[in-house]
Amino acid sequence: MDKILRINMGASGGPSIKEEPIGSYAGLGGRGLTSAIISNEVPPLCHALGEENKIVFAPGLLSGTAAAMSGRISVGCKSPLTGSIKESNAGGQAAQALARLGYAAIVIEGKPVGEDMYRIFINQQGVTIEKDNSLKMTPNYDLIDKMKKKYGEKIACISIGPAGEMRMSAASIAITDMEVRPTRHAGRGGVGAVMGSKGVKVIVIDETGLRNREPKDPEKFREANKRWVDGLKKHPVTGQGLPAYGTNVLANIINEAGAYPTNNFSKGQFEGVSKISGETLAETETKRGGVATHGCHRGCVIQCSGIYVDKKGNYVTKQPEYETIWAHGANCGIDDLDVIATLDYWDDNYGLDTIEMGATIAVAMEAGLAKFGDGKAAIKLLHEVGKGTPLGRILGNGAAFTAKAFGIERAPVVKGQAMPAYDPRAVQGIGVTYATSTMGADHTAGYAIATNILKVGGFVDPLKPEGQIELSRNLQIATAAIDSTGMCLFIAFAIMDQPETFQALLDLINAFYGLDMKDSDVVELGKKVLKMERDFNTRAGFTKEHDRLPHYFKKEKIAPHNVVFQVKDEELDQVFNW
Amino acid sequence: MTSQNDISINLIVPHNKINIFIPIIQKGFFIKTYIGTSIMEFLLQCGLSEEYILNNIKTVFLDCKPVDDLNNTFIKNNSTLSLSGAMPGLVGAVMRIKSPFQSFRNTISYPMKLNESTTATKKEGLVTIKLFNTVLSDNVMLFLTRGIFIVGSTLLSLIKENKSVFKKNIIHYKGNILQNSAAVTLLSRHQNDLIYVKVAVVD
User: Fold this and answer.
1) Chain B closest-CA separation from residue A396 CA (Å)
2) B101 chain-A contacts, CB cut-off 8 A
């Protein structure tokens, strides 16, 4: 992983290819690398869909190795949804394949003249780019079937659906999973629209003959990986809860806490939660002959995904995530898993962010375009987006845009990006992260990382409540570092509770690269990434006034706790005061 | 805890069909107890071991509020108690008992009242119990075999929706075997009442 592939889609005479050494970006991976390239090379005031923006695909530092859970790929650009820097990451096979080919990143720059679409093929022999307008407006599932016919089954694909081609701000980028299905998405921020603006429909990576990257110290690496896997398997979240019920295991809990946004964030509990909970989802999948425990990429030991099938046992979609089930479920008042699974399938097929689309449909319901709870109407609205009708063009540009178009105040967004599945009035600390994240409202920006083990901001007594501001800051720093490793964020629980498992992760990195990295180095890496991102945003015109929740969160109480968001603006301004 | 006035039904359910109760168990069933009992004391009375409670029940809500001290949080009449294992996600971790991130939820946490009396009153009350995820799968059998209260209409729906499970000879009422149709008639008259249900599991 010592080279960067640069593809200039706007070169005279057609797209040009250049490979160069990683150079000054050495030591960075995943989000660290995407944010460094965007921050260094993209003019912050450029149009996100213009020729000066770039889109970067970067596997993590440990991707392509035998390290378990290392298959996340980061996608970075200036976001058309937020106008800020963006990193959105996904599972699937692409990170492993790219890393094994030796690429630290693919950078797609420039913009072709005209409306042609291109197909990029990468294997051990090199890179080819071909104009292929036959793929125009092909949904992701059909597209991947065509790629499998052309290149065989041993491929990993990075693609966009019609939403990306239409440059919608809710467009995602699909990454194929172990079954070569386009089910894993870099969803947030409209990254698919940027790929579409570059005229790139699909990047196909041939996995034939690819081998794991070799560590500097194979013996130490093997031993650390064993401790790493043992730690993940013995922890109750990563070893039991997630494999058995998937991420949607959270539904009942968040609902019980009164933090489960329902009917466009108008209340904190959903009457129909038990019909769409993780427990019910797993039971439904198992009863119908689907799969309740499954990984999204090879090398995953947590296995939090699954395969959702219909009543006859036919494939519908991968197991929808907690965020998806909430967005299309409770937030739209829908308590039917089959409807939600159908919406998930079409989100994946059209190439749309499920969180943004769920939030958008809820706003549309509040605007009177459909009734809360009407699953058929929700599916119809999603098809409007896929077809690119005038209404679909509005919806496909997200919750903020739709709220503006229909004159709705309750648009649950920060920096233009829809909030995920936790109401910040009930869980005020996550509101701090939503408000101040460099990415717009983002639940993964400050994850439950081991701040104590990392000693970010000094040791915190777990029995004494730490301030929300300090905690949000520390979590955001730690998360930025983990996002750079290519590790799935769900490792967080094992490394949060088990210091020896965190040490195993450090040992994996050190054994692989021949380093002597300590926890303090991890903290510095996280700070470095955040500083680059904040700097880009500042140059793009973002001020402290953008680090705020929508005003209605301060005045509308949410049931059952009947609370408003109480964190003061001056406190929010202290998050990045380190 | 039951009384002579309670309508009591015994069910015989095959082991591989026990999952039909999952929707009820996660949505909430009822148990009678003395009000003022601490959560820890109540769970011990329900038959859970202290070791299990401390090692496996990592997230607890009382009346929608996350709890941090099982010994000093007390059950009131009509309280709802929800029990879960350790949860993923930042907010999952935030909700844990004594979470290092508990400041994130300081406006909704159950207030700690260390000086409150720990003596349960002799007054009987009703508690709604919800079991989630691993706590559900670990304990569904325990609660069902010890007996729980279910609203008549809920039990009626369960029996109607699972006719193949509740076939001949498996519904017992006042010592008599009740046919499915008779059970439906009986429960139709008691849709708003609490029914005491005890399950015997057979292979």
Assistant:
1) 27
2) 429, 448, 466, 471, 475
| Amino acid (1-letter code) at residue A157 | C
- In the numeric block, which tokens belong to residue A252? 């009942």
**B101 interface with A at CB cutoff 8 Å:** yes
What is d(CA B53, CA A58) in angstroms, rounded to the nearest whole number?
44
Q: Which of A49, A58, A112 is nearest to A83 (CA)?
A: A49
First vs last C-alpha separation in chain B: 28
For residue B75, the distance in angstroms to the closest alpha carbon of chain A comes to 17
Supply the DSSP string of A335-381, one letter for each residue.
Answer: --HHHHHHHHHHHHHHTB-HHHHHHHHHHHHHTTSS-TT-HHHHHHH
Can you give the three-state secondary structure of B184-196, one letter per residue? HHHHHHCCCCEEE
Residues A531 and A577: their CA atoms lie apart, in Å, by 11
Chain A interface includes B64 (CB < 8 A): yes
Among A72, A107, A98, A55, smallest CA distance to A485 is for A72
- Tell me how far the alpha carbon of residue A24 is from its chain's centroid: 26
Mutation to test the B interface, candidates A232, A249, A422, most B Cβ within 10 Å: A249
Structure tokens that stand for A493 in this block? 């629980």
Q: Please compute Rg for chain A using Cα positions.
A: 22
Q: Which residues contact B192 (CB under 8 A, 6 or more apart)?
A: B151, B152, B153
**Paired residues of A106 in beta bridges:** A5, A57
Q: Which of A379, A293, A388, A394 is nearest to A336 (CA)?
A: A379
Query: Which residue in the set A422, A447, A561 is minimally distant from B108, CB to CB?
Result: A561
Residues 6+ apart with CB under 8 A from A267: A558, A559
A41 CA: distance to closest CA in chain B (Å): 33
Residues A273 and A334: their CA atoms lie apart, in Å, by 9
Q: Tell me the HSE value of A523 on the side-chain side, using a 13 A CA sphere.
A: 15
A451 close contact with B: CB closer than 8 A: yes
Strand, coil or helix: what is A359? helix
Q: Please state whether the peptide bond connecting residue A462 to the residue before it is cis, i.e. omega within 30 degrees of 0.
A: no
pLDDT tens figures, A58-81: 999 999 999 999 999 999 999 999
Q: What is the pLDDT along chain B (203 residues), one digit of tens a residue?
A: 667 677 888 888 888 889 999 999 999 999 999 999 999 999 999 999 999 999 999 999 999 999 999 999 999 999 999 999 988 888 888 999 998 888 889 889 998 765 555 556 668 899 999 999 999 999 999 999 999 999 999 999 998 888 888 776 577 777 777 777 888 888 899 999 999 999 988 88
SS3 assignment, position B9: strand
Cβ distance of A244 and B66 shorter than 8 Å: no
Cβ separation A448–B64 shorter than 8 A:
no
Chain A CB contacts of B22 below 8 Å: 279-280, 283
B21 touching A, CB under 8 A? no
Classify burial at A543, counting beta carbons within 10 Å of its beta carbon; exposed 0-12, middle 13-18, buried 19 or more.
Answer: exposed
Q: Which residues, 6 or more positions from A212, have their beta carbon under 8 angstroms from its beta carbon?
A: A64, A65, A66, A100
Q: What values do phi and psi take at A133, rounded to 5?
A: -75, -5
Alpha-carbon distance of A223 to A554, in angstroms, equals: 51
B104 touches chain A (CB under 8 A): yes
Separation of alpha carbons A449 and B90, rounded Å: 8
- How big, in percent rounded to 5, are the helix, strand and coil portions of chain A? 45, 15, 40
